[in-house]
Q: What sequence folds into this?
């Protein structure tokens, strides 16, 4: 009896979580515009999606910003993590608190404060301001992915490399970097995902003519329902899911490696 | 590895793009400029607490509190069920719980728009079995439904992660000593899960109280929340002083509640998502 109740409860919660997503995906293949009745299978909405100028331009901006911002955040964030790791107690905790600040702050406040900054220092709102904002909110994710790897590192390895005549840069490249590489890559993939998924910060920091996919979806959804949005969201869901499977595989491989060492 | 100058670009970046922008919010909230120069003022902050806007603030808090409570009531039993599963099946269920969270939240909100609208699936199912089509899109209930749907996993996962770390032998000991399931839950399980509950509450309440998308798409603009009010001040009315004051109040409320919560969270170090 008790077992059956638990099963039913689990089923209901999962039904609640998945039914709307499944309906959304199913109706992206519906041949009529109706959201209530099934009128046959079609890929028409997907074809129209790729013909839509506005959507294709925002896809382009989304990808360009995601690639540049996650690369920039990875380079700067990895360097920062190494530097912060070597700091003394007080500066280290100040830096870590600054790192947590954008994560704790509500998105809307981050977005608005950045918008105020760009207007204040007269950077026109548009592609460049959005890119700078994405780098800003990506940085903490890189640092928080690299930090744990640095903590596991044996600090004497670096000294050993130096004793054996390696230059500082050579020692970083050949000794430190390979050991923290998995954290660096996780940070990169995580920021890439965050950047593709972001709506609120982009919404406030972009200007006329430049929008990413999330902003386009929002402005389309505000005008009403359109099966093209279903098709677009389905594709986005699948690609985010693939990215996360990759990230997850990397992380579990790490865990296995750690387990085999111990 | 003593050189830490390679962190400086990051520090400079964060000062420019995080600290100074927050300073600007503070600046626009409290400083007015007129002919004789800059003046400190509480005028904007006072406006936030005028009845007209106080209603909006209270409505946002009310909707967020109710949604958080619903998430807690629905989520706690779910977390318990997840935590007591056999190890192999557990991980699949937990992954299944995380997946919807990674769908863009606009998508999750939009999905409910299509379900709830007048010609939508729910309405047509109801009419086909002879019930009156209930119209809840663009009501307060739709906004709360959207919040619960979007944020339920944020409640379940922290509670789950704390519950699954509770030592089973402690529970067995309580049962051996004659504790009924109710007493075991009240005296042992619930107190031990409190850090997870606290971080769950924080992770649901924070996005719920600041959202402007859910209220715009599912409330249709009639149910203005503080997020919508802030958005309006910057994008429509262009009243930066008032908008900054609203953001400032919101930020103080959030950071204060996070500070209080983190006292409880310390006990469960990796109770979060990462």
A:
């Amino acid at each position: 009896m008790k077992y059956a109740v638990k099963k039913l409860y689990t089923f209901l919660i999962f039904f609640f979580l998945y039914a709307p997503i499944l309906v959304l995906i199913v109706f992206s293949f519906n041949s009529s515009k109706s959201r209530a009745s099934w009128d046959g299978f079609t890929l028409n909405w997907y074809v129209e999606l790729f013909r839509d100028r506005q959507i294709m331009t925002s896809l382009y901006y989304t990808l360009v910003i995601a690639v540049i911002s996650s690369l920039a955040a990875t380079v700067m964030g990895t360097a920062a993590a190494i530097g912060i790791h070597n700091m003394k107690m007080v500066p280290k905790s100040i830096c870590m608190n600054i790192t947590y600040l954008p994560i704790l702050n509500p998105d809307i406040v981050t977005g608005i404060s950045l918008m105020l900054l760009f207007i204040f220092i007269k950077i026109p709102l548009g592609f460049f301001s959005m890119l700078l904002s994405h780098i800003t909110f990506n940085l903490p994710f890189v640092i928080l992915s690299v930090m744990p790897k640095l903590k596991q590192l044996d600090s004497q390895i670096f000294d050993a490399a130096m004793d054996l005549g390696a230059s500082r840069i050579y020692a970083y490249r050949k000794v430190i970097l390979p050991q923290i590489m998995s954290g660096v890559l996780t940070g990169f993939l995580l920021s890439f995902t965050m950047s593709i998924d972001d709506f609120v910060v982009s919404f406030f920091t972009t200007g006329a003519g430049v929008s990413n996919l999330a902003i386009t979806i929002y402005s389309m959804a505000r005008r009403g329902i359109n099966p093209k949005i279903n098709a677009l969201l389905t594709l986005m869901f699948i690609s985010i899911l693939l990215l996360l499977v990759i990230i997850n595989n990397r992380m579990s491989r790490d865990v296995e490696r750690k387990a085999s060492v111990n | 590895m003593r050189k830490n100058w390679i962190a400086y670009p990051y520090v400079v970046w964060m000062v420019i793009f995080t600290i100074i922008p927050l300073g600007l919010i503070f600046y626009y909230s409290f400083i007015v400029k007129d002919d004789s120069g800059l003046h400190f003022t509480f005028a904007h902050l006072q406006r936030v607490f005028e009845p007209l806007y106080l209603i909006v603030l209270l409505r946002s808090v009310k909707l967020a509190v109710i949604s958080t409570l619903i998430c807690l009531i629905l989520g706690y039993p779910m977390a318990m069920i997840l935590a007591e599963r056999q190890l192999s099946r557990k991980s699949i269920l937990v992954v299944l719980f995380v997946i919807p969270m990674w769908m863009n939240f606009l998508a999750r909100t939009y999905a409910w728009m299509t379900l709830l609208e007048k010609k939508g699936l729910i309405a047509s199912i109801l009419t086909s079995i002879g019930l009156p089509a209930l119209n809840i899109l663009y009501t307060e209930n739709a906004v709360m439904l959207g919040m619960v749907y979007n944020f339920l996993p944020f409640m379940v996962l922290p509670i789950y992660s704390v519950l699954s770390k509770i030592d089973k032998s402690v529970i067995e000991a309580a049962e051996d000593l004659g504790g009924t399931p109710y007493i075991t839950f009240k005296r042992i399980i619930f107190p031990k899960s409190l850090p997870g509950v606290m971080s769950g509450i924080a992770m649901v309440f924070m996005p719920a109280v600041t959202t402007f998308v859910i209220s715009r798409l599912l409330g249709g603009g009639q149910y203005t929340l503080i997020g919508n009010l802030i958005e309006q001040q910057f994008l429509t009315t262009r009243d930066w002083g008032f908008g900054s004051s609203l953001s400032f109040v919101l930020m103080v409320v959030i950071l204060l509640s996070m500070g209080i919560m983190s006292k409880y969270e310390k006990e469960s170090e990796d109770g979060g998502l990462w």
Observations:
- The first strand of chain B starts at residue 31 and ends at 34.
- The beta strands of chain B are 31-34, 37-40.
- Residues 268-274 of chain B have pLDDT under 50 and may be disordered.
- Chain B touches chain A through 76 residues (CB under 8 Å).
